[in-house]
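Example 3.2
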Amino acid sequence: MTAKWLLLPVKNGARMCKAHVLARGKVFREFDIEFAQGDPDWYAALDVSSLKGSKIKVSVDGLRAGTKSLSLVKVADELSAPDGYDGVYRAQFHFSPARGWTNDPNGLSYYNGQWHLFFQHNPYGVNWGNMHWGHAVSKDLFHWREVGEALYPDGLGAMFSGSAVVDRDNTAGFGRNAHVLTFTGTAGGSTQGIAYSLDGVNYTKWSGNPVVPNITNGNRDPRVFWYEPGRHWVLVLYVEENGRHNVVVFNSPDLKRWKRVGTIPGDRRDEGAFLFECPELFELPVEGENVSRWVVFGANGEYSIGTFDGRNFKTECDRLVLCRMIRGCGYYAAQTFGDVPDGRRIFLAWFRTHMPGMPFNQSMGLPLELKLVRTPNGLRLAAFPVKEVESLRKGRAVPFSEFNGELVEAFVDMRVRPTAGVRLSLRGIPVAYDAGHETLEVDGVRTAWPLVEGRFKARLFIDRTGLEIYSENGLVCLPVQNARATPADRSLRIVDGAKHVLEDSSRAYELKSVWR
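Structure, written as tokens:
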């Protein structure tokens, strides 16, 4: 090996094979891959820079006898996205990896002057499998640069979801300000391990792993944070036990030794999905008040508000839905960023967008700022696209009738007759609003959407794949993963019910691609 990358040919939908890369007398990597036995659709990339100067052997089980497929293997010193970040379904202001499958965001944190996004990643195929932690960094939450795989599968198993913290006081002994990842390894029935870095690029798994042994076969997704009043670390972990989705609370002085101290009960497995997978627990100030509350939620966005003393969570209001994200819509397995300098609580979700025929699959949603607001019904979480999205705007906002662009940030603002309906076509995506019932419908999904002083108001974002709609007060969010803009249609218009629109102040910005 003299090059950094080993390139392996992939044919989407081909027979799954087991590949082995051997070097220096042992297996360097092994993984499942749809190895091309003819013209490849794209090339998967394996970082072999650590093997420079060594001979390697590539073997693939399951190929046809006599095939010359292995002659398609290549090497390269530089990489670019197989589609040039311009594929027909490539999101232009949502993160997606250059190649391969992605799902849950992991280890969201601000470290060494950059935002860090780790993500569940299959570098060798466009479907779920071979779970690694991919890694990307950004200065502004939108322009992401991939820096390689942070965690590879190994004797601890596949690398499932987890979180990251900055160990400012060197409690773990890895060094002051070490960046410490906590992950689930799938070997041995699932255990929790840690890895660390002092440069935010290269991560080393601790030799003493696992730090939390197997509890049940359903324990995963550790979320770690520093609890300042008690001067200790807290880990919350999804654990399926006794037929229930629980969030189990652990304490530690050093990120290595963990003690179980509490349990936050969720739904019974056969009754619902409250607190199922990817738990989050954090404190937020109540807007306009000198008090704060803690919020716990799981992968589907259902949450509770209450108090937390470092060990026990006491519920005050229960079983709410984050931004009223509707079941069956596109967000799942969200996490919030830790160590944010300005104290914002920024939320990022897996956006379950399907990209057929591409060398990549799935994306991340818009980064959102969460706020805790008091409403007539009590405290609620509200979500707003982060202010950094404004840097993507091209020029000024124009009326819908003047808009002609591909990437859209739109503000719908229409005074409508109180019992009427209006249908919009937004780059070919149908959106229907029923003022009489105060409901919004997109892609067969309907949700309550109250009028604001007699006006239909909404903020929405349209990418090549996916549509997200937010209410003015941040209490309703409708992410629609199946919405696809019509490439030739760059208009925003009313297609039915224009006579019921008494005043239209709607405006839209065209947005810039983050890849150009």
